[in-house]
Amino acid sequence: MTTTTSASTTRPLRADAARNRALIIDAARELFAQRGLEVTLDDVAAHAGVGVGTVYRRFANREELIEGVFADHLQKVAARIRSVAVDADPWDSVVMVLMTIGEHMAADRGTAALLTSIDHSAPAVQAAKSDIEALVTGIVEKAKAANAIRPEIELTDLFGVICMLSAIGDATQGIDGAWRRYVELLLDSLRGDGPRVPLTVPALTHEQLLEIHERKTH
């Protein structure tokens, strides 16, 4: 009897906590897009319609909140990729991955801006990135095996493509759907069949990616 009562009382608390966390994440994302990363936890609490103490119970400081917003964004991207791309035709999978990322970046400039400023070593961010990396690695390898994309394409090449999409999102902000044209141009450069301009520079190494991130964040 006691156990049943305890379960019934804690279950709504867990639901409340999840709802409050979602409100906080959504409010922070909106404020980051409107005002940049300098917003305070008090600002976020007011925008979310929750108490300041509720925000601090979920996130000890602004850095944790920024990491939470970015991790949430990555988790949604991963879920979308998993739902539309994993079981599709090899080339269609590549198209869907880049279209999904482009769409998320265009629709959510506040979160996209975190790409080069977030602490990528944060556990929640690393876990979400690892999930996306595993999904995209499988899609890239399947596409290469089917000759759907150029055989010399590496996973790290997609980092550069994503950075380009982020820059395009900034440049075309407010122009509905403009980003799609540039995703289509990028996709043409990845396609495996037909003559292509040879790549004269090798793909970035993971060490080089870390160096780029360090330069961007310091």
Automatic annotation (TrEMBL):
GO terms for molecular function: DNA-binding transcription factor activity; transcription cis-regulatory region binding. Signal peptide: none annotated. Residues 40-59 bind DNA. Residues 18-77 form the HTH tetR-type domain. InterPro entries: Homeodomain-like_sf, HTH-type_TetR-like_transc_reg, HTH_TetR, Tet_transcr_reg_TetR-rel_C_sf, TetR_SbtR-like_C. The keyword Coiled coil does not apply. The keyword Glycoprotein does not apply. PROSITE patterns: HTH_TETR_2. Keywords: DNA-binding, Transcription, Transcription regulation. PANTHER family: HTH-TYPE TRANSCRIPTIONAL REGULATOR BETI, HTH-TYPE TRANSCRIPTIONAL REGULATOR RUTR. This is TetR/AcrR family transcriptional regulator. It comes from Gordonia asplenii.
